[in-house]
Amino acid sequence: MAEPRISSIDGKLAEEFAVPSHVEEVKEKMAAFASFHAEAGRKVVLITSGGTKVPLESRTVRFLDNFSSGRRGASSAEYFIDSGYAVIFLHRHRSLYPYTRMFLTINMLDALEFQAGGVPGNTGEVVVNQQVLPNIAKVLKRYEEVKESRLLLPIEFNTLSEYLHLLKAAAQALSTIGSKAMFYLAAAVSDFYIPASEMPEHKIQSSNGPLQLSMKMVPKILSPLVKDWAPQAFVISFKLETDASILLDKARRALDTYRHQAVVANVLDSRRGYVVVVTPETQAELILTEEDVKNEVEIEERIVSNLTSAHDNFITQQVA
Amino acid sequence: MAEPRISSIDGKLAEEFAVPSHVEEVKEKMAAFASFHAEAGRKVVLITSGGTKVPLESRTVRFLDNFSSGRRGASSAEYFIDSGYAVIFLHRHRSLYPYTRMFLTINMLDALEFQAGGVPGNTGEVVVNQQVLPNIAKVLKRYEEVKESRLLLPIEFNTLSEYLHLLKAAAQALSTIGSKAMFYLAAAVSDFYIPASEMPEHKIQSSNGPLQLSMKMVPKILSPLVKDWAPQAFVISFKLETDASILLDKARRALDTYRHQAVVANVLDSRRGYVVVVTPETQAELILTEEDVKNEVEIEERIVSNLTSAHDNFITQQVA
User: What ipTM was reported for this prediction?
Assistant: First the structure.
């Protein structure tokens, strides 16, 4: 008797979260991408990345957001591609992007210069100073290869509503390739929202005094995703806490509730050097040593390596 | 008898908004910058730009934010520099930045290529494709000139607390140059916050049910800024509304309340093509025509032109 609950999530999505106008178009694009790569023998991962914007007004001046630079999603995308996956990258507009993420900490104009020996004035070549960006040639080459082979399909979202509808569309688009699809749900999704019907149209006036906000709980979309939209897929959720003492318990409870394959559990302060991959049967700690950090190893390389092996086992079991 | 109220804003700032550890250092830097340029005969403008982040938890996962790309502040900075001003650019981390703002809409890697005729492999020069970024040479040249002449001092903030304390420090730093200082307060500052003492330490748990947020009103910092911290300066505030019908009334009320020199009033939907500069005696509509838009004229050029003239008159009157 699961149907009423599930159709109620579908109903809620349609009623309380504005449907982006391009959702059908994006869905077709994702379905074509998935079947193209599956036919070429590749697995396909949908990565979600970045935080969701939750508007407080329909002509939005203010919004609630979740802390997330998108670093984990963007770097994971690169490692999945290196492992032979095709990647749908469903990310927050202007969050970190695969390959381009190397520009995050610099001002691009500080990395450019006029070519020595060029014609003076405004006509010369502008070149990258490879002292400032020592990896640029390697990264650009890789970026161009990936673009050439069409291994990366970027899709953007801004608001929570866009995220939810696009994730549903992605799940339906990927359902056609069964267990070859992985969902790597690394986005930092809001747990709370204000329904469209309860949202003021105009900017909330501060002259009205202190702000009382009453926010509803976002429906747990993982439930219909696992049960209905993409029931054969390999599904990974992420759990970020600030309090380490409740983390593993919450990860286990999520697996019990949603019956998906794994939770990547991490704590805000240590997330770049330590995660636990929790499955119903196992619990793997992935840790970067000081040596790793010195060698610029990224923890996403370990996470992706762990999960691609598990995905292979999962596919074998489905077939057997 | 204004003192108790003002010292109460100072007290509130110290008590309820965490003081950034580098505030004194930044203040000295700003004071040195201001006196250097004032001695060289330049006026100095402090531009604030971008939205403020209002944390909901002290180990922050969630925050309230204000919509603002920082475009107005970043482009205005360029026009102020072109008008002979030195600029302190107090901006939200990763919001748009003068000159660099041209990279906003492109993926930088799409604008780079290996130099034709270079050595194959990873060792060649990487150049900017000037078909993709036609203005790059001009912009880079101007950026380098401005850097060379040290006309731009960038200071970053993330949270509302950082913004408030750094603005106070800036006002005190600029008070030494009297009427030669302009404040151009274009940042989108939150009207609401949660005091440090009422903030939960850890991530709010969605298992506790719907979220009830009770947010206090941010103290109106324009009041001590105009009255106490920089009483001789030329001060411009910004008013953004979504409802055009209340805009001018709110602008006039702000001038009555804070007794500063001008309000730049604008409506969310039309803000890039239409603003009204409101002063106690005048009201100037600045409008971009279709012709202007075709010629890529930016409204900030008009705003800055209007205000630099008004600032000159203001300085003359002070001296007379």
Answer: 0.89
